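Bench notes, afternoon.
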Amino acid sequence: MSRVAVLKGGRSLEREVSLRSGSNVERALERLGHDVVPVDVDEHLVRTLRSEEPDVAFIALHGKGGEDGTVQELLEILRIPYTGPGVLACERAMDKVVAKAYFAAADIPTPDAYAFSQDAFRELGAADALADIHERLGLPLVVKPAKQGSALGIGLARSPEELPTRLMSALSYDDRVMIERFVDGRELAISVLGTDDPVALPAVEAVPRGREFYDFEARYTPGLTDFHAPADLSPAVAERAADLALRCYRAIGCRGFARVDFLLDADDALWVLEINGIPGMTDTSLLPKAAAAAGLSFDDVVARVLAEAALGL
């Protein structure tokens, strides 16, 4: 039995999702016989961890501070082993622009995109290049914050006139935005477990009901999305998707667990959108559904992730 601190909550925009993930993890750890220390992360985190003296930290902290390497760095300093990817892998995964560069370097298919900081628009006149962008990438365009999870701030610009509004919306979530070529396709996700010999779980397809894409509400509101686990894919496509997920996992340097999000177009081409270093563990999250499709219970997943906890890479 270990004394496990479950880090959850925090101050990011994904706080409520994180609290739900953390609560599910806590119950699983209790069923597994561990001494659980729930920690709603705040400005006293270091003091709390020193006082509680956990053997290991299970990170269920989503968004800024939890997925970007910040809390991982603090745990490294305190010499507390933790679940999930290390500092550098979290930094790479959290920044969609950086992750896309790693994917491209590894010859992993990902939609073409351009990224700009708020300063580029304010000080360098980047707005005057928008016509060039939609001329090269076509319409519609996907506009998203560079560092935000759960599809927060993502919008679809179907015309040049909509693009400035979508950019302003995305910039309200982050000071850097990415404008990405739109791919019309099925929303797929593959979760990966393990470190030395990682395993790709079956693909899960999310089919939102009456929405443009798999947005925040569709992700976390029961009844707004139909899930198919495993996804109805040909053996060849399923194998290619699993291979791509493992290549993404290794390219970013993940360990423990992660989730890779794809689009599958009408020609059966797979396009990697992003990788999530701290995937959701809520009742509507995709990793638990993928695990169930593979014959693994939620407790099995938590036990395996906890067993991979470590310091550093």
